[in-house]
Each structure stands twice: as C-alpha cells, then as structure tokens.
Design goal:
The protein is an alpha+beta fold and 260 residues long. It is built from five helices and 15 strands.
Length: 260
Amino acid sequence: MARLARALAAVVLVWALLAYVVLPALWEHHEHNPALATAPYVTRTGDDIPGDPINVALIGTQTELISAMGAAGWHPADPITLRSSVGIIESVLLDRRDPDAPVSNLYLFGRRQDLAFELPVGTSARERHHVRFWRDDDIKSERPVWLGSATFDRSVGLSHLTGQVTHHIGPDIDAERDGLLAGLAAAGRLVTTYEVSGIGPTLNGRNGEGDRYVTDGEIGVGVLRAVGDAASAPPERLPSPAAVQVKNRLWAWLRTLFAR
C-alpha cells in the first residue's frame, strides 16, 4: 500500500512539473518580437472585470492601420453617442444595416480602445466581426505596435454577469484572429506574419459578459505594408518553434475531443 502511494505521488509530481513548469516554458515564445513578452494579454471592462483576450497585433503607423483595415473591407466603428446608440438599437430591432455601429468600451493600459473596426454580417448589427486596437506605448520601436482583440458578435442579449444589454461573442476567437489577418493578406497589406505567446491555451475562458471563449493562446502578428507600397508577393510567414508547433497540433486534437 505504501509503495502504491509513493508511485501515485511520483506520478502527480511528474504531472505537476510537466503541466506547470516544463511545458509552459517550452511553449512560451517571443523570438520574433521579444518586446511583446511583457504586453498585457487580457482587456478589462469598465467595471474592472477581465474582458476579451488580446489575440492579434499589427505593426505600423495609425495611417497604415486604418488604410489596411479599409482595404480589407472593415468599417471604423462610430463613437458611442446618443445618436449612434439609437442607431444600433434600430438596426437590431428593425433588421437594418448599420456598418459603422459603435462597440462597447474595453480597457487596456488603463484606457479604452484607440481604434475599433467592424466587418458586417447579415442585415443588421446583431452579428458582426469586430476588433479593438490599443497602441502599446511601452514598446519602443520605429513603428508603433497595436494590440488587438478580435471577436465575433453572434447575438444580442443580457450580460451573464451584470444583466446589461450587450452583444454575446462566439467562442472561437482564434478563427477571428486568423480571418482578420487572412483578409489583410488578401488585400496585399501585410509584409510579414508570425505568432507569439499570448494568454496561453484556454478551453473555458470567460469574458466580461460571461461569454465562453476557446483559444490556443497565440497572438497573431502582422507587419503592415507602407501605404502606396504595392504588394508583389504574399506575406512572409515566420515559423514558430518546433515545441509550439507540437502544442498547436495537440491543442487542435484537444479542441476536437472536448467539442464532442
């Protein structure tokens, strides 16, 4: 009995070392942009509740970012005013298009988003792809770094945490990250893409409204092409370390397993 107890203790110890020390150290990577190792990975709501995670980053000037998003079909979101708030309510209730509808405020670095964009779906603002961006002024580089949170609004309802009227997001935030970067690449606005570690693999994350999200924990990074610089080839894709590629394959299998 004592031998069995020691064996079980050894198994638990090995598992703990692998799960909490070895594998996180192997999977964490910022080799293509070390400055992003200290970036915040989760936004906050106005009530200081953890919000949507950071899952995308763009590198370039504000002019380059706005131009690139427009070329990929994204619309700048209107600021929250009485008029824009009435407009989005009419869009949802009357099934009218509102491609510039406002998005709620989230906070990073102690301030609300610097820029927000949306890609309409269907005939109203009930469903839409949207992304918020914050300029990371802590990163000193020739071109600004914009941290973004890309999600899909799947419906309108009441917040699970506050009871307020809000959009509910779809759980697959990796698809939103990948779709945004793919759209920018198709529009010829990216020079290079790569990934760095973000929030980490998450099967049952919850945002500030209580909505579930699932992610492999990577931040997709795109280096923007200068305005007027014609694209001559698809963007270069920088590879992640072998251990991270193994993690991503394992993660894809786990997602399939837990989706059953």
